[in-house]
Specification:
The complex is a heterodimer. In chain A, 52% of the residues lie in helices and 23% in strands. By secondary structure, chain A is α/β, with parallel strands linked by helices. By secondary structure, chain B is mainly β. In chain B, 8% of the residues lie in helices and 55% in strands. In chain B, a hairpin with a 6-residue loop joins strand 5 and strand 6 (118-125). The chains are: A alpha/beta, B mainly beta.
Chain lengths: 151, 409
């Protein structure tokens, strides 16, 4: 019974891992990482995304980047859960703590993905995230660069 | 000073009423300011609390409760290339201390050279443990008070900020995560109307302390962001030597009562080991702190600091608006006297050797930038209660209830 219980437990843990991994993979596809067209990169690693959006990293493969945030919404929640490992509340508090302790300026943020995309299109070196469905909109797709994400 | 307070309040209220979000002042249209200043970000906060305790008093004498628990601040920041300039004005009251005096909370010039190494100078918040740099602004955490075992209110001033300079950065460790570090050298700033002098008055050999001066010190910290998502661990280290000027209590081996007395606390080491694990809406934190050093009268060692504290806490975001937290915090005034025998030998009570504090907190966000909080503490022991806040004998058990509301932009 003990051996059977152990195998059962391991199986459940493995299944849970597979399910969670698939959910995350599915979530990740719902968000696109976008950048200004002139940025000198076409792909980005997940760990670099975490580094720049936590304000600890200002370059990706030598290219200077300036982050732009979404204020709220599903795309924001999915991005933060998938790449940053924080909830929207935790991420918001994280940046406010940096601002109120003199560590950083608050990154530029917008209420909608469309506003984010328009700002990214107009400002050099900017990098942001929006819903993938929005990123595929012909006008937006034309104005920005969609970066592929490497794990 | 009253005029300054008026201006400060006016600035803050203007900011609060102008916008629920940050205020941006754009100088880009101006030929000179547009080139060198660009956009100035302005953020601010204001909070008001109420505290009532039975047993010992946490922040001031009296049993009717107190509204003398508030903070307010306003900060300005701008950038020019890799150089960032920022400053925050702050005023607050903690019981009978600080008296809403406006102080320069921090003011930094920060040059971002590389992600791995950058430079920061000015008056900086002291890096210690997970939360010391943000301890004065409780709007961004669930609890009103941080666990007192590590974030000792009695040492709030000496550990608040350091004026000097140093380096900071993030080192990439590839598959092993990354390391964030800060290393500063400077002198801490102590408010004469703050907690430091009351704390020094708790030393049995000195009274009526009139001056508390810290020496140049090192403040350093490193955190390892581990490959386990959400888990970070790290350590902090400070060397806060200080001088105290006051008058002798007439203890055996010291000058006659009332004679001037100067004590030096030398060879101080304060360090903390910290860990925080974020799993979805749950944040677990645990820290361990030690403070050691020698107390000298001239070249004669007359005592020592040997404090130890640790805590564990859990914070959970139940809904978009409601979060709760529990913490258990343990502090010993002397690691070698956990049962209080030495305290009794010196004429004190056993329970002055420890502070064991269980707290439960709730925070409700009325709006994105406005919250209300309630917090209850059950404390066994009296090691962290000051005689300045407690006119009679200290008691063994204390219950403390606190409420607070905070607004920020």
């Amino acid at each position: 019974m003990g051996k059977f219980g152990g195998v059962l437990l391991l199986s459940v843990m493995f299944l849970a891992f597979v399910v969670v991994d698939n959910v995350l993979a599915e979530d990740a596809s719902q968000v696109s990482i976008i950048a200004n067209k002139d940025i000198g990169i076409s792909s980005v690693q997940a760990k670099d995304i975490k580094g720049v959006f936590l304000g600890k990293q200002t370059k990706i493969d030598g290219a200077k980047v300036v982050i732009v945030l979404l204020k709220k919404g599903d795309a924001n929640d999915i991005f933060l859960k998938t790449y940053i490992g924080k909830t929207a509340k935790q991420f918001s508090s994280y940046w406010k703590k940096r601002v109120f302790s003199g560590k950083s300026r608050m990154p530029k943020s917008f209420k909608t993905g469309k506003e984010v995309a328009e700002y990214v299109a107009s400002k050099k070196n900017t990098i942001a995230y929006i819903a993938s469905s929005l990123a595929q909109d012909a006008t937006i797709k034309e104005s920005i660069k969609i970066l592929s994400v490497e794990k | 000073m009253k005029f300054l307070k008026y201006i400060f309040s006016l600035l803050l209220v203007s900011g609060l009423s102008l916008s629920a979000c940050a205020v941006e002042v754009d100088f880009s249209e101006n030929d000179v300011l547009g080139k060198y200043v660009g956009v100035v970000d302005i953020h601010g906060f204001i909070s008001q609390g109420f505290i009532k305790d039975s047993g010992n008093n946490y922040i001031e004498n009296g049993t009717d409760g107190s509204f003398n628990l508030r903070e307010m601040g306003i900060n300005f920041s701008t950038s020019y290339g890799n150089l960032r300039l920022a400053a925050q004005l702050f005023a607050g009251t903690l019981g009978s201390r600080y008296d809403d005096n406006i102080i320069l909370h921090w003011a930094v010039a920060d040059y971002h050279w590389k992600d791995e190494i950058s430079f920061r100078g000015g008056k900086m918040k002291m890096p210690f443990g997970l939360y010391n740099e943000t301890r004065d602004i409780d709007a961004f955490r669930t609890s009103i008070f941080l666990p007192n075992a590590v974030y000792n209110e009695n040492y709030r001033d000496p550990f608040s900020s350091i004026t000097g300079g140093g380096i900071y950065g993030t080192l990439d460790a590839s598959d092993y995560g990354s390391f964030d570090y800060q290393f500063y050298v400077g002198v801490p700033d102590v408010d004469d109307n703050g907690t430091a002098i009351d704390t020094a008055n708790n030393f049995p050999m000195i009274q009526n302390v009139k001056d508390f001066t810290l020496q140049q010190m090192v403040a350093t910290q490193m955190f390892w962001n581990t490959p386990i998502d959400g888990l970070k661990v790290g350590g902090s280290y400070l060397t806060p030597d200080y001088d105290i000027n006051g008058y002798s209590t007439g203890m055996l081996g010291f000058p006659a009562a009332g004679a001037p007395l100067k004590l030096n606390v030398d060879g101080s080491h304060v360090w903390a080991f910290s860990s925080e694990y974020t799993i979805g809406d749950l944040v677990l934190a645990a820290e361990y702190m030690r403070m050691t050093g020698g107390i000298y009268n001239g070249s004669t060692k007359v005592g020592s600091l040997n404090q130890m504290g640790y805590y564990g806490s859990a914070t959970y975001q139940f809904t978009d608006k409601l979060s709760g937290a529990v913490a258990y915090s343990v502090f010993y005034d002397d690691k070698a006297d956990k049962d209080g025998d030495k305290k009794v030998a010196m004429g004190g009570k056993k329970y002055q050797a420890w502070n064991k504090d269980f707290s439960i907190s709730a925070k409700y966000d009325i709006r994105d930038n406005w919250d209300v909080k309630a917090e209850l503490h059950f404390v066994d022991g009296a090691a962290q209660y000051l005689s300045a806040s407690n006119s009679g004998d200290l008691e063994c058990y204390t219950t403390m209830l606190a409420f607070k509301t905070s607004y920020y932009f």
